[in-house]
Amino acid sequence: MRVFVVDDSPLVRERLVALLSEVQGVEVVGTADSAAEGIAGIVAGRPEVAILDIRMPAGSGISVLEAIKQQESPPIVIMLTNYPYPQYRKKCMDAGADYFFDKSNEFHKVAELLQRLGSS
User: Fold this and answer.
1) 107: how many CB neighbours lie within 10 A of its CB?
2) I need a surface site. Which of 23, 54, 69, 100 has the fewest CB within 10 A?
3) What is the pLDDT of residues 11-66, one digit of tens each?
């Protein structure tokens, strides 16, 4: 399962890549730190899964979500954010997000989910 990560924090990207490298069958095929770079990387790389942060200095994960969900065969999208507010959750789910996790206490769920998806 090919995964692309979009988050403006280098620390979060590194932590996610390290976490996902331990999940059998998962390969991180790219990372980006901005919305524009994320859209370009996801469109070009066509991963099965995209992990997106909501708030970034240059754009938002929601704009990335909206753009990539218009593709033919869009990836599964996991929103991973420090802003787990109900209004963000609703906006993301309405825009086509498949999953929504809080970075502060659900970070580990990303790996668990990918493990489940990979074995099904």
Assistant:
1) 15
2) 69
3) 999 999 999 999 999 999 999 999 999 999 999 999 999 999 999 878 899 999 99
Measure the CA–CA gap between 115 and 28, rounded to whole angstroms. Answer: 14
- The CA distance from 77 to 93, in Å, is 10
DSSP state of 59: S
* Cα–Cα dist 17/29, whole Å: 10
Beta bridge partners of 55: 60
**Element at 45 (helix H, strand E):** helix 35-45
All residues at 6 or more sequence positions from 2 whose CB lies less than 8 Å from its CB, including other chains: 27, 29, 45, 46, 47, 48, 49
- Whether the CB-CB separation of 51 and 1 falls below 8 Å is answered with no
Burial class from Cβ neighbours inside 10 Å (0-12, 13-18, 19+) for residue 83 reads middle
